[in-house]
C-alpha cells in the first residue's frame, strides 16, 4: 500500500474523467430542465426538479474534479491492473449480439447460442457438459414459464418457442 | 418438440403476412394486457378488473390489468398508442381526458387517429367530499369561505384536465369564486388527502363511498342528473343552481390499425361482460351506470365529445395557446 | 378481552382444512416467485386472481396474502447468493448478504434472513391485531409536505450506505432521481427525457435497472478475476446462524421490526425506505461500522426484518381505511371487492370473522414459511458449489428471463444489458450503485410531492418547517447529515488512500 497523496495533475487520472462525465451529464440535465420549463414557485413546472437536480450534479461533479486535481487519484490503467479485461469485454460483446438477435430469432434460438458462447469463451467448460446445459436449461425455463406460469417468451419471426 | 405447430416452418417460409392472418384466427392465444390508467384500488380500477375478469372467461385467456397511472389517465393510453402493436394483446381503458388534454396542451397522441375504438362501457358518479371534521357542512359554506379567502380553498383531483378539474373550475366560475386545484394520481390518494385534511375538498368518482358510509367524509354534492339512490340527501349540481351534468363516460380501445376481426371478438366479449351479474353488482357498488355503445357508435361519440369539450375548454380559457 | 375472543375466532376460521390448504398454496407460490428475480408477487397475484373466485372470500384472500408475504421471504435468496436483488427492498440485503456468501457464510445469511423475516412478520401481526384501528390515523397524517420531507430523510440515509466518497454517492443519487423522472410527467402529462423513444414514455423500469447494475455488472466484474471467483465457493462453514450471529442480530432485528412496521403503514415506498433506513441505523449504532459492506450479519438481519414488518404494516391502511398503500395491497383490495366486500372503516366490525381469520392465517402462513425455507438453505448453498464458469451463464440467463417476465417487454432486456455495462464501469471507477437505486425509487415521489406541497402552500417554503411531522423528518435529516460530518470526512480520506493503494 503506497502513499500516493503527492500525485499531481495527470490526464489519465480516472477520478478526473469520472468527474468530467458527471459534469457533462449535469449540464445536460440543467438544459433539459430549462427546456421543459421551470414554472413558478407556487406552481412548479415539469423541469423544476430536473433543473435543480442538474445543478446539484454539477456541484458534486465539480467537487470530484477538484479532488482529482488537488489530491490526484488512481490512473485509468491501474483500475484494470491484474484484471483479464478481455473477458468482460467478450461477455459484453456476447450480450450485445444477443440483444440484437432476441427480437428476430425469439428466445430459444438466441438464448441457446448465448449460453453456449458464455460457457465456452470465458473459462471453457468441456463440450460434453456445455452443450447439454446450453440446450436444456433455456428449454426447461421456457417450458416452465409457458406451461405453468402462462408467460410467453418472445417467439421471433420463425415462431419457435 | 420445440416447434409449436407442424405448419410453423411453412408459415415462416411464406412470410410475415400469412402468419399475421393465422394469428387472427387463433386470437387470443396468450394473456391480454388491459392498461388501466389509474392507480390500483380506485373505482375505475376495481370496476375494470371486474369487467376484465368476466370478459376473460369469454375469451378463454386471462386479462392482466396493468396500472399505468398519471397525467389524469392519459399516460396509459398514450404509452399504448406509442409503443404497442395493434395485435389485440394490449388494450386500454380510455378516459375522457384522452380527448380533452390535446385541446389544452401539446401531447404525443391524436385521439382521432391513434386509437382503434372497440366498445363503450360505462360512466362514473362524481361527487365533492370534505373531511367529517371540516368546517364545511354544505356547499354554501364552501362558497361563503371562498368568497372571503380567494384561492385558499384547495381541492384534490385525480389529475389536471380530468372532468373533476374542469367541472370544479366551471362551478367556481359560475359561483364567482377562486379555487386551487391539487392534482393527485387517483382515488386512493385523493381519499387520503381529504381524510387527512391536506386538501379542504376532494373531487373524485365514488371511491369515497365506504368512507362516506362510515361517516369519515362528508359528501357535499353529486354531479349526476338525478340524486344517487345511495345518497338521497345529497343535492345534485342542478339543484345547487349549476346547469351541468358530469359523468365522464369511458370505453376501451387499442392502438391504431387493429384487425377488425380482433376488434369484433373483443367487442363481443366485453359486451357480454356488461351483462354478467357480478359485473353489474360491482358497477352498482360505485354507482356506475352501464352505457354500452358498439364500435361504430363509439367512433361517432368520440367526434361529438371532442367538439363539446372544445367549447367548454374555450369558455374556461384553458385552451392550448396557439402561437 | 374482546381482542382475545376475536383472535380465537380468527384461528377457528384460519384452521379450517380448506383454508390451511389455500394458505399453503399461497406461501408456496410466494416463495417460488420471490426466489425468481423479476417475477414478483404482482404478476403472480394478478394471474391467480381469477382462481380465487371459486372459493369463499376467506380462502381466496388468505391465498393472495400468502403469495405476498411468501415472496418477501424468498426475495433475499438471490440477493445473498448471486447479488441480484429481486425487488427494490432487497437491494440493501445485497450489500452485506452477498459479501457473507463470498466468505462462505451463505448459510447463516440465509438463515438469519429467514428467522428475521419470521420474527418481524409475527410481531407485525400481533401489532396488527392490537393496534390496527388506532394506527389508521398515521397513514393519513402524511400529506404532500410530510412525504417530501420523509423522502429527503430517505435520501440522506443513503449517505450511510456508502463506503467510498460522499461526492460520488451524491452524484449517483442525483442520477438516480433524473432516471426516475424519465417518462410522462404525472402532473402535466408532458414527456420528459424520452429522446423520442416510445418505450421510454412509460419510464425506465426498476427491475431492469436493478438487475443490470447489480446482477450483470457483478458477473462482468467476476469474469475478469481468475482467482477471485473461487472465493465464493471457499469452504462453507455453517448452515445456520451461530450463537454469536444471533447475539449480533437480536438488536438489529428488533429495531428493524419496529421501524419497518411504522414505515409500512405509510402509502408509498414504505418497505423500501424501511430496509435502507434500518441498514443506516445499524451502521450508525454499530461500534464497528467499518465491517458494514464487508459481510456484517447485522446488515442482513435488520433490513430483512424491516421489510417483512413493513409487509404487515401495509395491511393497516387497507383494512381500516380501504386505502391500499402499494400495488400489491391494491390487488388484495380488488380481491375483496370481487368477493363483494369493501374494506374500509366498517369492515372490522361488520365482518370480524374475515378480518381476524385473515390475520390468524398470516400467522400460520409465517410458520409454514419458516418450515418451508429452512431446509431449502442447504440446497441453495449447494448451488454455490457450482464452478463459476457454469454458474455465471446461468445467472445471466435468469436475469434475462426475470427482466422479460416482469414487463413482457424486450426493450427492458436491452435496458438491463445497458445498465449492466454502465454498472461495470461505474464500479471500476469506484461509484456505487445502491444510492442510485434508492434515489431512483424515491426521486419521482420526492418530485411529485414537492410540487404538490408548493401548490398547496402557494409557494411558501415554510410549509415544510411549520408542519410538525415534516419538520421532525427534516430536523432528523439535518442531524444525520451534520452530526458525523467531520469523522466522515476523515474516513473519506482514508478510503481514497486505500483505493489508491490497490
Task: Give a quick summary of the entry.
The complex is a heterotrimer of chains A (161), B (323) and C (502). Helices cover 42% and strands 19% of the residues of chain B. By secondary structure, chain B is of the alpha/beta class.
Spell out the blueprint of helices and strands.
The complex is a heterotrimer of chains A (161), B (323) and C (502).
Chain A: H1 14-35, E1 39-40, E2 43-44, H2 48-71, H3 76-79, H4 86-105, H5 107-121, H6 127-148
Chain B: H1 8-14, H2 16-26, E1 32-36, H3 43-59, E2 63-67, H4 75-83, E3 90-94, H5 97-104, E4 115-122, E5 126-131, H6 139-148, E6 153-157, H7 163-175, E7 179-183, H8 187-195, E8 201-205, H9 209-213, E9 217-222, E10 250-255, H10 260-275, H11 277-285, E11 290-293, H12 295-316
Parallel strand pairs in B: 1-2, 1-3, 6-7, 6-8
Antiparallel strand pairs in B: 3-10, 4-10, 4-11, 5-8, 5-9
Chain C: H1 2-14, H2 17-35, H3 41-48, H4 57-82, H5 91-102, H6 106-141, H7 144-157, H8 166-180, E1 183-184, E2 191-192, H9 206-223, H10 243-265, H11 270-285, H12 298-313, H13 315-321, H14 327-338, H15 347-350, H16 352-383, H17 388-407, H18 410-428, H19 433-457, H20 463-466, H21 468-482, H22 485-501
Antiparallel strand pairs in C: 1-2
Helix pairs in contact in C: 1-16, 2-4, 2-16, 3-4, 4-5, 4-6, 4-12, 4-14, 4-16, 5-6, 5-12, 6-10, 6-12, 6-13, 6-16, 7-19, 7-21, 8-19, 9-17, 9-18, 9-19, 10-11, 10-12, 11-12, 17-18
Element-by-element helix/strand order of chain C: HHHHHHHHEEHHHHHHHHHHHHHH
Describe the global form of chain B. globular
H and E order of chain B: HHEHEHEHEEHEHEHEHEEHHEH
Number of helices of chain C: 22
The average pLDDT value of chain C, as a whole number, equals: 81
Q: Work out the oligomeric state of the chains in this entry.
A: heterotrimer
Sketch the major β-sheet of chain C.
Answer: 2 strands, antiparallel
Q: What is the total tally of β strands of chain C?
A: 2
Task: Give the helix tally of chain B.
Answer: 12
Distance between the termini of chain B: 62 Å
Task: Tell me the radius of gyration of chain C.
Answer: 22 Å
Q: What is the percentage of strand-forming residues of chain B?
A: 15-25%
Backbone shape of chain C? globular
Q: What is the SS-derived class of chain B?
A: alpha/beta
Number of strands of chain B: 11
Most extensive interface: pair and counts? A-C, 79 and 71 residues
What proportion of the residues of chain C form beta strands (DSSP E)? under 5%
End-to-end C-alpha gap of chain C: 64 Å
Helix/strand-derived category of chain C reads: mainly alpha
If you average the pLDDT of chain B, what whole number results?
A: 84
